[in-house]
Design a protein that fits this description.
This protein is of the alpha+beta class. It contains six helices and nine strands. A hairpin with a 7-residue loop joins strand 6 (about 145-150) and strand 7. The model is unreliable at about 5-20 (pLDDT under 50).
Length: about 190
C-alpha cells in the first residue's frame, strides 16, 4: 500500500519541479563575443538560419509538455558520436544528423521547435562547460524563464537547475552573433 503512495509522491514532486512559476530565471547577457567555428561554417551553409531576428511582442509560455516531448524524441533519434567519426572532421554542425554531437542535438531540437510555433529569437544555442568538458545545449527563452534542452538529460531543466556553467549564447536579436553570459537574473529580458 505504501509503494503506490511513494510513487505518486515522487511523480508529483517531479512535476512540481518544472512548474513555470518555479523557473523564473533567465541567462543574463553581456557584450558580443566570438562565434564558435562550427557555427560560422553552419551559417555559411544555412544563411537563412543566421540573420536578424524578428522580435515578438512577448515571450511565449513554456509549453513544457512540448519541450519535454521534443527533447526526448531528439535524444532518442540521434546516436551520440563525434564529428570526426561521422563527418570526418573536427567540427560539423547540422540539424539533420542521425549520429552527432551536442551541437547536432541542439540544432535538431531548435528545428523541431520552430516547426511547432516557437520564434527563432527564443531558441538559443548556448555553450559552456559540464565539468571540464565543453558542451552545447538549446536554451528556450519563455516568459516563465529560460529552459535547457540537453542531449545528456531527458529532463527539461530551468537554467537555475542545469548542471552546466554557461559561457556564451546566440543573440536573440541576430542568430549569427553570440553574446557573453554574465550570470543569471530573475528579471524578464
Amino acid at each position: 500500500m505504501n509503494m503506490p503512495l511513494f510513487l505518486l509522491a515522487a511523480l508529483v514532486a517531479s512535476l512540481l519541479d518544472l512548474t513555470p512559476s518555479s523557473a523564473s530565471t533567465w541567462l543574463k547577457t553581456g557584450t558580443e563575443t566570438t562565434r564558435p567555428y562550427g557555427h560560422v561554417e553552419y551559417c555559411t551553409r544555412n544563411a537563412s538560419d543566421c540573420r536578424n531576428q524578428t522580435s515578438s511582442t512577448g515571450l511565449p509560455a513554456a509549453r513544457l509538455n512540448l519541450l519535454r516531448s521534443i527533447n526526448n524524441a531528439v535524444n532518442k533519434a540521434i546516436k551520440p558520436a563525434s564529428d570526426k567519426a561521422v563527418f570526418g572532421r573536427k567540427e560539423f554542425w547540422t540539424a539533420k544528423a542521425r549520429s552527432g554531437d551536442c551541437e547536432d542535438f541542439a540544432l535538431a531540437k531548435r528545428a523541431r521547435l520552430l516547426r511547432n510555433g516557437f520564434n527563432s529569437s527564443q531558441l538559443l544555442l548556448t555553450m559552456g562547460y559540464r565539468g571540464n568538458e565543453a558542451h552545447t545545449v538549446l536554451v528556450v527563452r519563455t516568459r516563465d524563464g529560460d529552459y535547457v534542452l540537453d542531449n545528456l538529460e531527458d529532463k527539461v531543466q530551468p537554467v537555475r537547475a542545469a548542471r552546466m556553467s554557461f559561457r556564451k549564447i546566440q543573440s536573440p536579436a541576430h542568430s549569427g552573433r553570440w553574446l557573453k553570459i554574465t550570470g543569471k537574473t530573475g528579471k524578464t529580458p
